[in-house]
């Protein structure tokens, strides 16, 4: 199963939009992020892979990463994607 989290400061209440379920176990995340500064000329784009992190740990790592770039950002957006986990059986878990 693929899970995607999208976070942007332009979203209402600055909450992440989640596609798929939030995994309970630590997963490997691939993250793309964009940060724009007040001048409008500087755009920081980056990618990173975070090994074995839960959703809360992922949020903490991204907050720290964005904080290192600068607290004067006018726009912050990031998308995290993970693959794997349990697949639901098509026949309800029964063997035939």
Describe this entry's structure for a reader.
- The chain is α+β, with helices and mostly antiparallel strands.
- The longest helix has 15 residues, at 55-69.
- The chain has a 5-stranded antiparallel sheet, with helices on one face.
- It has 1 helix and 5 strands, in the order E-E-E-E-H-E.
- Strand 1 and strand 2 form a beta hairpin.
- The radius of gyration is 16 Å and the shape is elongated.
Shape: elongated
Helix content: 10-25%
Count of extended strands: 5
Q: What can be said about the biggest beta sheet?
A: 5 strands, antiparallel
Oligomeric state of this protein: single chain
* Tally of helical segments: 1
Give the N-terminus to C-terminus distance in angstroms.
24 Å
Structural class: alpha+beta
Spatial strand arrangement across the major sheet: 2-1-5-3-4
Mean pLDDT: 78
Mind telling me the C-alpha Rg? 16 Å
Order of helices and strands: EEEEHE
- Taken as a percent bin, the fraction of beta residues is 35-45%
Would you identify the regions where 5 or more consecutive residues have pLDDT less than 50? none
Note the main attributes of this structure.
96 residues; alpha+beta; five-stranded antiparallel β-sheet; 16% helix; elongated
Quick description:
This protein has 96 residues and is of the alpha+beta class.
Itemize the secondary structure elements and their pairings:
Layout: E1 2-8, E2 17-19, E3 27-36, E4 43-53, H1 55-69, E5 75-83
């Amino acid at each position: 199963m693929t899970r995607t989290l999208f976070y942007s400061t332009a979203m209402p209440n600055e909450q992440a939009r989640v596609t798929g379920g939030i995994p309970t176990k630590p997963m490997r995340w691939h993250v793309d992020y964009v940060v724009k500064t007040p001048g409008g000329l500087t755009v920081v784009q980056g990618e990173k892979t975070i090994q074995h992190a839960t959703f809360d740990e992922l949020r903490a790592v991204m907050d720290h990463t964005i904080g290192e770039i600068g607290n004067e950002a006018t726009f912050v957006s990031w998308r995290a994607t993970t693959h794997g986990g349990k697949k639901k059986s098509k026949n309800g878990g029964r063997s035939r």
